[in-house]
């Protein structure tokens, strides 16, 4: 199961939305949220897809179009399922971008993404 999920901008780690498993809130999740925020701030120097082991949990992420989709899963959760989950989130978020900014065949959302200045701009998506 994925306990914590973020969508953020790759260039600076600005968080667009986050969700978490409410049953696991507390000091442990607060620690992992802090780690996630640190990772997100440095995402532009990481490969486009990776898993980062933290012991009992693993951060999995993918990047696409200037956006990073990152989730925290239990160590035992299958990597393939985590990346499938992230791909589903990515597809749904691209649909959200189309609703927010319009849709054309050649529309590049990166300009819109880079222009966002407030954190949690897409909080309703989460």
UniProtKB/TrEMBL annotation:
Pfam families: Longin. It is found in: Endoplasmic reticulum membrane; Golgi apparatus membrane. The keyword Protein transport applies. Gene3D superfamilies: Longin domain. One of its GO terms (molecular function) is SNAP receptor activity. It is a single-pass type IV membrane protein. InterPro entries: Longin-like_dom_sf, Longin_dom, Sec22. Keywords: Coiled coil, Membrane, Protein transport, Transport. GO terms for cellular component: endoplasmic reticulum membrane; Golgi membrane. Belongs to the synaptobrevin family. This is Vesicle-trafficking protein S22a.
């Amino acid at each position: 199961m994925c306990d914590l999920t973020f969508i953020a901008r790759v260039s600076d780690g600005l968080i667009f939305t986050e969700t978490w498993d409410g049953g696991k809130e507390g000091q442990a999740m607060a620690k992992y949220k802090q780690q996630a925020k640190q990772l997100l701030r440095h995402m532009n120097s990481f490969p486009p897809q990776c898993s980062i082991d933290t012991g009992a949990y693993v951060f999995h992420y993918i990047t696409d179009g200037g956006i990073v989709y990152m989730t925290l899963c239990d160590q035992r959760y299958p990597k393939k399922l985590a990346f499938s989950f992230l791909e589903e989130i990515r597809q749904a978020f691209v649909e959200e971008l189309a609703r927010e900014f319009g849709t054309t065949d050649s529309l590049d959302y990166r300009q819109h993404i880079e222009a966002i200045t407030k954190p949690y701009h897409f909080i309703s998506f989460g």
